[in-house]
Amino acid sequence: MMHRLLFLVPVLLITLSGCGVYSFSGASIEGKTINIHALDNRARNVVPTLSPALTNKIRDRILSQTGLSPITTPNADYDISGMITAYEVTVAGVQNTQTATLNRLNITIQVVFKSKLNEKSNYTQSFTRFADFNASQTLQSVETRLINDIGTQLADDIFNKAFVNW
Questions:
Q1: Of the residues 10, 81, 98, 135, which has the fewest C-beta atoms closer than 10 A?
Q2: CA angle 154, 42, 138 (to 5 degrees)
Q3: Are 76 and 66 in contact (CB under 8 A)?
Q4: Residue 76 DSSP SS3
Q5: Using an 8 Å Cβ cutoff, are 164 and 158 in contact?
Q6: Which of the pair, 26 or 123, is modelled with greater confidence?
Q7: 19 pLDDT band (50/70/90 cuts)?
Q8: Residues 6+ apart with CB under 8 A from 50
Q9: How far is CA 7 from CA 12, 18, 156, in A?
Q10: How confident is the prediction for the chain on average, in pLDDT?
Q11: Which DSSP letter does residue 121 get?
């Protein structure tokens, strides 16, 4: 019985990976190519490193989980474009109704996803994520870490919406 199991597991893995439709992330991938455009930064507060950082997070997440090949021509099976629409700091926690104890960095991205293989999966949607930081810290001192954390969450949301449909 154990020998059969040891034989069936590799055969099953090879069979599933060979069909090119499913991945271990739960994604359903039918295509072979993707064009991921750089995000246009249209937020009121523009951080020069924000667009490349978020674009790279999204690109890395999708390419590492799908096996799609990135191309820069309009005939890709999948096309992702979008813009950063909000980058703002708000107060998240107050002490004695006058002193801020916690601030929150909010980032919103509007994404346009197009599939040449399945037009029903096309969407335009905004994704918002945030991270809190102590009000005694300046945004500049924690900004890189917060952008990295929020970027990871946004990349997961965009990937799941495009390929996993959760």
A1: 98
A2: 70
A3: no
A4: coil
A5: no
A6: 123
A7: very low
A8: 41, 43, 84, 87, 107, 147
A9: 9, 17, 34
A10: 85
A11: G
- Reading phi first (left if > 0) and then psi (alpha if -120 to 50, else beta), residue 71 is in beta
Tokens 């905004």 correspond to what residue?
Answer: 126
Tokens of 123: 């969407």
| Residue 3: Cβ within 10 Å count | 7
Q: What is the pLDDT of residue 95?
A: 67
* Strand spans (E) along 96-147: 99-115, 123-134
Instruction: Tell me the pLDDT band of 91, cut-offs 50, 70 and 90.
Output: confident
- C-alpha separations of 152 from 60, 89, 142 in Å: 10, 19, 16
> What pLDDT is stored for residue 93 in this prediction?
74
Domains of the chain: 32-164 (3.30.160.150)
Q: In sequence order, which residues have a C-beta less than 8 Å from that of residue 148 and are 6 or more positions away? A: 53, 57
List strand residue ranges (DSSP E) for 9-122, in order.
Answer: 33-36, 40-41, 69-70, 78-95, 99-115
Q: Return the pLDDT at 101.
A: 84
